[in-house]
Amino acid sequence: MTTKMWKKSAFKLDIGQVVVGKWHKNVYQVQKKLGEGAIGAVYLCSSKGRLVALKGSDQTASIMSEVNRLKALKRGQGHSLGPAFIDVDDLEDSRGVCYSFYAMEYIDGISLDNFIRIRGFDWLDPFIHQFSNQLSHLHQAGWVLGDIKIENILVTKKPHRLRWIDVGGMTEIGRSMKEYSEFYDRAYWHLGSRRAEPSYDIFAFAMVIIRLYYPKGFERSDHPKKKLLEKINQAPVPEYRKQLLKHMVQGDFKQMGEVKDMILNLPTQQTRRSQSSRTNAKRKNSTYSKDIQPHYPWLEVSSIVGWLLITSYLNLTF
Amino acid sequence: MQKGTLKQILLITDGCSNKGEDPAAVAAFIAEQSIAVNVIGILEEGAVDAKGLSEIEEIAASGQGESQIVYSHHLSQTVQSVTKKSMTKTLQGVVNQELKQILGEEKTLEDLPPEERGEIMEVVNDMEETCDVEVLVLVDSSASMTHKLPTVQEALIDLSVSMNARIGRNRFAIYHFPGKRKVIQKLIDWTGELKSVSQIFPKLAGGGITPTGPALKEALKAFSEPKKRRSMRWNDYEDVEEIGF
Ligand SMILES: Nc1ncnc2c1ncn2[C@@H]1O[C@H](COP(=O)(O)OP(=O)(O)OP(=O)(O)O)[C@@H](O)[C@H]1O
């Protein structure tokens, strides 16, 4: 192509570097690198007195597609699931190489699997409820989230909510899935197509929950469906959640709202209390991350005991 | 709206050609007929064949397609990403061509402000979803490839599952080379659905020669065989011109 300056070269910023957008002239100061994906790299930057996440790449087309999706995500939700869109621009580095980047809200949180490992599976039902709620808004707006996987879900601090950080897989309903990951893909498990439908997200979300019980994942066998149902049965999952998961992976729910309803009509607390004391025992041994302040929305005697154990444990480690 | 057909060859090989004309030159010739040549190199775990790698890249570069080197267990996702990336590239090329006519010789997508670029990307995405696609798969069946063929079959079926989730129509044909008597041998004639095919690769007695260049040349003929199909032109997307500049 004519402009040689857009040659392939990885997007890289230095800590402390000041980035000024070519078109909009907004200023970003680089704080640290957050991560790197297939398309480009993400940096934490400060701009106009706040923190933002800046994603840049030499693949301008992919950046533009993601920006379009971020904007659609914003239109399709009441309160935010994904990061808010802030800015899109180009950057020319000192060698004259051009990159495209966009700035979005910085989401400060830890991964869902870490959170659950530390705080226990009690948090799962509230999270499933919240996520179902927000997904159903997005579905009503005509989109599926697509590439739903554990790595793309963060839990924020105050309050503890699920947030979403990767819009690359967002697809308009009725079209073919933009991106997916094998373990979370229903077609991989021979349980549906790769056409974007609410039930595609429901399946992938069930796999996120299953993955919490099988951190390393597992592969399909010659009978993918049978293997998956076996894995659900074998997991240390309360019975009502097994039923929920089985419905979710087999395409019994067509709308996210049905998942929500099932969570709301949960069985008695008894079955669940026994599970919660089990997780408290586990907490004692887990390495408690310092940046998570334990706070309990519903205190029980058993949790107070757990709390005391944790506090003394923390004191020992300081 | 009249939709165009996007044509691709997908070459799957594990090494260097050793017979006949230079495959990169043949790929350049094929690209001239508006057919992109994509190449996937399947690598043995641990083995690096520098000569094979550079040939793979060179064929795709001349063929205006995409290339990717992969270990066999990652094949499915690679086959799809290469196919889709190549579609985007071709369609972007079509769009850039048109932009040059509107904006002047030296202009491309990147010279537009980000907002307008975003609108154009939406158009490219729409085209990707709705255009008809023909993929001719050309599989190297030399001796070293034979034990990888089950994985190749799985990847191709998975490709058809992904492609058939699109709104546009798809046709696939599968050939292997070298054939017993011919340079390339047809395994599956043009079809929209590979899912129903139980066995793509019969027992193939793989030999030692890899005539990649001649095979590509024959593959081109297999394309225009049934009837002359129109290839993609901008005019197939009349409504696109309505984006204001
Ligand atoms: N808005 C954000 N707030 C906080 N962290 C973010 C944000 N966006 C991205 N990150 C961090 O940056 C990392 C890289 O993100 P990115 O989206 O580039 O890659 P990915 O999702 O791993 O891969 P891919 O590009 O293939 O989708 C993420 O894993 C995440 O930790």
Q: Could you tell me the number of beta strands of chain B?
A: 6
Class computed from helices, strands and strand pairing of chain A? alpha+beta
Oligomeric assembly: heterodimer
Total strands of chain A: 11
As for the number of domains of chain B, it is: 1
* CATH class membership of the largest domain in chain A: Mainly Alpha
The backbone outline of chain B, from C-alpha atoms, is: globular
Architecture overview:
The complex is a heterodimer of chains A (318) and B (245). In chain A, strand 5 (85-92) and strand 6 form a beta hairpin. Chain A has 9 helices and 11 strands. Chain A folds into 2 domains: 18-105, Phosphorylase Kinase, domain 1; 109-315, Orthogonal Bundle (Transferase(Phosphotransferase), domain 1), CATH 1.10.510. By secondary structure, chain A is of the alpha+beta class. Chain B has a single domain, classed as 3-Layer(aba) Sandwich (Rossmann fold), CATH 3.40.50. Chain B is built from 6 helices and 6 strands. A 6-stranded mixed β-sheet of chain B has the order 3-2-1-4-5-6, with helices on both faces. The longest helix of chain B is centred in the middle third of the chain and has 29 residues, at 75-103. Chain B is globular, with a radius of gyration of 18 Å. The relative contact order of chain B is 0.21. The model of chain B is unreliable at 226-230 and 232-245 (pLDDT under 50). Chain A binds chain B through residues 1-3, 6, 23, 60-61, 64-65, 67-68, 88-90, 98, 100, 174-177, 182, 187-188, 193-196, and chain B through 76-77, 88, 92, 96, 105-111, 113-115, 117-118, 120-122, 124-125, 129, 158, 161-167. Bound molecules: adenosine-5'-triphosphate (ATP). Adenosine-5'-triphosphate is lined by residues 34-39, 42, 53, 55, 83, 104-107, 152, 165-166, 168 of chain A. Chain A: Keywords: Kinase, Transferase. Chain A: Residues 268-279 have a biased composition (Low complexity). Chain A: One of its GO terms (molecular function) is protein kinase activity. Chain A: Pfam families: Pkinase (PF00069). Chain A: Residues 28-299 form the Protein kinase domain.
